[in-house]
Amino acid sequence: MNRITSAAEYKKTYKASVDNPEKFWATQAKTFKWKKKWKKVLDWDFRKPDVKWFVGGKLNITENCLDRHLKKRGDQTALIWEPNDPSRPYKSYTYKALHKEVCKFANALKKNGIKKGDRICFYMPMVPELAIGVLACARIGAIHSVVFAGFSATALADRIKDATCKMVICSDYNSRGAKNIPVKKVVDEALKKGCKSVKTVIVHENTGDKVTMKRGRDKWWHNVTKDQKGNCKPTVMDSEDELFILYTSGSTGKPKGVVHTCGGYMVYTSYSFKNVFAYEDNDVYWCTADIGWITGHSYIIYGPLLSGATTIMSEGVPTYPDAGRFWHICEKHKVNQFYTAPTAIRALMAQGDHWPSHYDLSNLKVLGTVGEPINEEAWQWYNKFIGKGKCPIVDTWWQTETGGIMISPIPNALKTKPCYATHPLPGIQPCLVTPEGKEIKKKKAEGLLCIKYPWPSMIRTTYGDHERCRQVYFSAFDNMYFTGDGARRDSDGSYRIIGRVDDVINVSGHRIGTAEVENAINEHDNIIESAVVGYPHAIKGQGIYAYVITDGKVKDKAKFKKELDAVVRKFIGPIAKPDKVQLVSGLPKTRSGKIMRRILRKIASGDTKNLGDISTLLNPDVVKEVIKGKV
Ligand code: WT7
Question: What is the whole-number distance in angstroms between the Cα of residue 540 and the centre of ligand 1?
Fold first, then answer.
């Protein structure tokens, strides 16, 4: 697989990938092990949407992640696990050992009745068993649906029901910083909410603290794997068989299950991993994301393992036991590529410049960021204090739906520029369009970011509701994938992502739908109506601002705020708690009764001068009140 190492090579490769995409991707795909070669590289129709890559090809992604490497690098470390508590020993698995563990668990799944096409939900902290479990599913063709362990029992139950999962795999507890979070208890609670499809729960013993096991349903991980063989024949999968479902928030309704398939996802995650991180043999790569999000799927597990890399997964948080934890891990494992979120950088920056100086960071070669726009100050700090001015910073723009990194600098080939994700990777054809759907041809422009040609790791459908997939991503603009982001393009073709143009808030790199938060808040007895918007937040990027109309019976505001936190916690999870709550007597609405979020967003951001024409509102007077009561 080619890795781009110069500007000239990027230019040439990009051109080739656009002139003849099928030839380009066929060349990349050939480096993998296929059980049967594809008949056709690409079949597509964005209007349906119907996208198929490597049509008729047969493969198993884990054979490419594991078996393919055994001969050359069987004894090389594949996975390093760093525990939450630095005084506990870390674990590492060679490719041989990881292969064996994956096979054992795959056999255990089969023994417990799991077959190709069954959906399995993971609700686990960042322990090696999560990576092993996910790969074991892929080994036998079961579809994994990982749910971030910070979601509530209600949110978990919604996702289990939507995918009709047959099994849930969890841990007893989650050690996170100084906390010990009861994971199994949340699963028990979720399963009481009508998850009839679940037959078995497999519980991994993490902390060893007490849990209740339900007879006939719950089994220990160590018991089900005990007598299993360390070999399991990989199930032959079609290129377009489903590999996994991952739920993500949108502007309306419940979260949707983004579906990714085997062949294209394999080719693209590996190609993008090697290029964006300039990964070379024997490098040690660390991505701090959680496997509950797409970043963990594509760039902790699949991309690195497909590329024969050494990948680190860490259980803890950036500030436990202190703000030097990340840099301690970088020193300890001689990390070469480090990939994190802007919110983490800002949080650590706020703790003082001295923390990184206590550690040897000289092995670092490439630094990455993902999840939200990185502000210039954080970029400069990352560059100076972590990269010591010698590590290119790859600001990678992509989404759950894109499966892999779409726009990013390529080290030593494309210049980095603070706040810019810069240029598209080979094979990616972004464009800017006007709200009316006209492509803007002029280089220097601002518009809505779309992609006008398929790429191998793109979303195929939203689980159980294909029409929703069409509606959300392919109906806004004809024959294009709409990202939901706005972007600016410079005269050199470099892209700067501005952020979401829909009702999605990006809190610490977590995507949260305003409608979901409103629905949760509306469950509180005293709430008549609510409107939730994002506003700039120094550490989180965006904070959640909730405007609420109550029934007038709220006496103690502080207590009321706590109660709202609790309902949001109950229906979504702590990540969606509002940062600010303002009680209002009305919400600005159009004459047809639509809430004018644009105005609320401006007020929440403190930008009250440019509210535009408010005279056409149904209730212009309420605007004054809302401004006056800003918290
Ligand atoms: C949204 C996707 C992709 C993994 C993590 C988030 C925002 C993502 C960047 C970036 C500016 C970014 C976009 C995008 N986003 N990366 N480098 N610069 N914004 O995945 O939860 O699917 O969220 O995150 O708004 O649409 P996700």
Answer: 14
Secondary structure (3-state) at 343: helix
Q: What contacts 226, CB < 8 A, 6 or more positions away?
A: none
Largest CA distance in the chain: 73
CA distances in angstroms from 401 to 159, 288, 482, listed in the order given: 17, 20, 11
pLDDT score, position 99: 98
Gap between the Cα atoms of 34 and 36, Å rounded = 5
pLDDT in the model for residue 358: 97
Q: Hey, which of 497, 507, 510 would you mutate to test ligand 1's pocket, going by the most ligand atoms within 8 Å of its Cβ?
A: 497
Cα dihedral sign, 159-161-163-168: positive
Instruction: State the pLDDT at residue 294.
Output: 98
> Ligand 1 centroid to 319 CA: how many Å?
23
Taken in order 485, 488, 494, 497, the sign of the CA dihedral is negative
SS3 368: strand
CA distances from 236 to 4, 270, 333, 539, 569 (A): 32, 20, 36, 46, 41
Take residue 573 and report the two structure tokens written for it: 């999870």
128 in Cβ contact with 172 (< 8 Å): no
Instruction: Give dist(CA 312, CA 286) in Å, integer.
Output: 5
Structure tokens given for 55: 């049509």
Tell me how far the alpha carbon of residue 621 lies from the centroid of ligand 1, in angstroms: 37
Task: Determine which residue's CA is closest to atom 17 belonging to ligand 1.
Answer: 397
482-502 confidence digits (pLDDT tens): 999 999 999 999 999 999 999
- To the nearest 10 degrees (0 to 180), the angle between helices 262-276 and 21-29 is 90
Ligand 1 atom at shortest distance from the alpha carbon of 504: 25
Which helix (H) or strand (E) segment is 171 a member of? strand 167-171
Instruction: For the chain, give the mean pLDDT.
Output: 97
Atom of ligand 1 nearest to the CA of 395: 17
Q: Would you say 410 and 337 are in contact if contact means Cβ atoms under 8 Å apart?
A: no
- What would the two tokens of residue 265 be? 């996802």
Determine how many CB atoms are found less than 10 A away from the CB of residue 443.
12
Model confidence at 609, in pLDDT bands (50, 70, 90)? Answer: confident
Nearest CA to ligand 1 atom 1: 399
∠ Cα 238 242 244 (to 5°): 140
Within 6 Å (CB) of ligand 1, which residues are found? 248, 293-295, 370-373, 395-400, 421, 483-485, 497, 499-500, 506, 511
Q: Are 377 and 541 in contact (CB under 8 A)?
A: no
In terms of Cα–Cα distance, which of 120, 129, 133, 124 is closest to 159? 120
Mutate to test the pocket of ligand 1, among 298, 346, 485 (most ligand atoms within 8 A of CB): 485
pLDDT digits (tens, 9 = 90+) for 357-391: 999 999 999 999 999 999 999 999 999 999 999 99
* pLDDT surpasses 70 at 1: no
Return the percentage of the chain with pLDDT > 70, whole number: 100
Mean pLDDT of 391-395: 98
Distance from Cα 558 to the centre of ligand 1, integer Å = 33
